[in-house]
Design a protein that fits this description.
Number of strands: 13
CATH class of the largest domain: Alpha Beta
Oligomer: single chain
Strand order of the largest sheet: 2-9-8-7-6-3-4-5
Largest sheet: 8 strands, mixed
Radius of gyration: 21 Å
Number of helices: 13
Number of domains: 2
Helix content: 25-40%
Low-confidence stretches: none
Bound molecules: pyridoxal-5'-phosphate
Distance between the termini: 45 Å
Structural class: alpha/beta
Strand content: 5-15%
């Protein structure tokens, strides 16, 4: 029998740099409490609580019946890649259409982020990214032996990027900058001016921009702006998007990138050597999502909008809690530093004592310390109940 230590001898050094997404860990703990009979309000996981729109499900089922159940080409079915190129061009109002040859489909945006970063980062390269951020970016860079370099998002600027810090942190080793607007975990949205400044810095220093726009359909009361609209930079921008959030398709696993030719080719090679292709019938459902009625997406967005307004007002009503109004995604990121600087302990306390599952802001990076991340992808009733429980529990936090 091998001891635990002997087993660890088999693991490589890179795997020790793999973090694990806090949302899934907290979900596991919350489910265990539920099984033990506790009543838990789930605000920890970032997935829409809606069902996948009917026309998409119908298309997926029909595709199975029509035997779209075989391997697909590594970068995706050509019809789907054309539809994606066309949709991405139209949605962002671009003058020069995207070409289908740049589209690489994958089982999830997360997978395509790994494909692209694996294709471009060498050990020792630096990757700039906004802090706090979706954890996968820094984990992937670290795994590859590259250096993740955080650039702060500023609460004082509604969680927009500190552009001075960005400029100061560029070095000759900077290979990639990742931006994510609207942002997980803050809900912050970069302005047109922010994007122009970022585009200028990228052009000057010739690094690649990976723009993760998976929340582009969740922007409230303002127009979505994309760095891809700076079309002169197209040969150094990788656009990442997916179906999980906009179409409530988290479990289908479907995402893509649109990349310059060399990067698209390398991302395809990663697919070829790992998962081979994305499920064929799921790509067919993706075609239905992008070419079918858009109303379901707009309806879901409008519901999120109402919930956002209610949650932010409710949070600001709790003593010692302040929350700025996030223009996008479906997350609130309230500041609780007047209650305690230890956000993770507070999150555990709220789960154990109040039955509210949410995440400490520092799970997303140092700049998230003193905040909580609340996913408002939950019903108004659940959100009201969570706010009520927080209002009662927070003053009793044993600080
Ligand atoms: C910012 C961001 N990017 C990418 C993803 C990955 O999405 P998926 O792999 O489900 O397409 C997520 C999921 O939470 C996310 O928040």
């Amino acid at each position: 029998m091998t001891t635990l230590e002997q087993q660890y001898d088999y693991l490589n050094a890179a795997v020790s740099r793999l973090g694990s997404e806090a949302a899934f860990e907290v979900l596991g703990r919350a489910r265990a409490l539920q099984e033990a009979g506790r009543d838990i309000v789930h605000l920890e996981v970032g997935e829409p609580d809606f069902d996948t729109p009917a026309h998409i499900k119908t298309a997926g089922k029909a595709a199975i019946d029509e035997n779209f159940t075989h391997y697909a080409p590594n970068p995706g079915i050509m019809e789907f890649r054309r539809v994606i190129a066309d949709y991405a061009t139209r949605f962002r109002g671009l003058k020069t259409p995207y070409d289908a040859s740049g589209v690489v489909v994958a089982p999830g945006a997360k997978q395509i982020i790994w494909n692209v970063l694996s294709a471009v980062l060498d050990p020792g390269d630096e990757m700039l990214y906004a802090d706090p951020a979706y954890p996968t970016y820094a984990v992937c860079a670290s795994y590859l032996g590259a250096k993740p370099v955080p650039v702060r998002l500023l609460e004082s600027k509604q969680w927009r990027l500190d552009l001075d810090e960005l400029a100061a942190k560029v070095t000759p080793r900077t290979k990639v900058l990742i931006i994510n607007s609207p942002s997980n975990p803050t809900g912050g949205v970069l302005s047109r001016e922010d994007l122009a400044a970022i585009a200028e810095i990228a052009a000057k220093h010739r690094f690649l921009i990976l723009t993760d726009e998976i929340y582009c359909r969740h922007v409230y009361g303002q127009k979505f702006e994309s760095i891809t609209q700076f079309e002169e930079l197209r040969d150094r921008i990788v656009l990442v998007d997916g179906f999980s959030k906009a179409y409530a398709m988290t479990g289908w696993r479907l995402g893509y990138c649109i990349a310059p030719p060399q990067v698209a080719k390398a991302a395809t090679l990663m697919a070829n050597n790992t998962y081979a292709c994305t499920s064929t019938f799921i790509q067919k459902a993706g075609i239905a999502a992008l070419t079918g009625p858009d109303e379901p997406v707009v309806e879901m967005r409008d519901i999120f909008h109402k919930r956002r307004d209610m949650v932010i007002a409710g949070l600001n009503d709790i003593p010692n809690v302040t929350a700025c109004m996030p223009p996008g995604a479906f997350y609130a990121f309230p500041n609780i530093s007047k209650v305690t600087p230890d956000d993770k302990r507070l999150a555990s306390y709220l789960l154990e004592e109040a039955g509210v599952a949410l995440l400490g802001g520092s799970c997303f990076g140092d700049a998230g310390a003193g905040c909580l991340r609340i996913s408002y992808a939950s019903s108004i009733d659940n959100l009201e109940e969570a706010l009520r429980r927080m209002r009662v529990a927070l003053p009793k936090f044993p600080g």
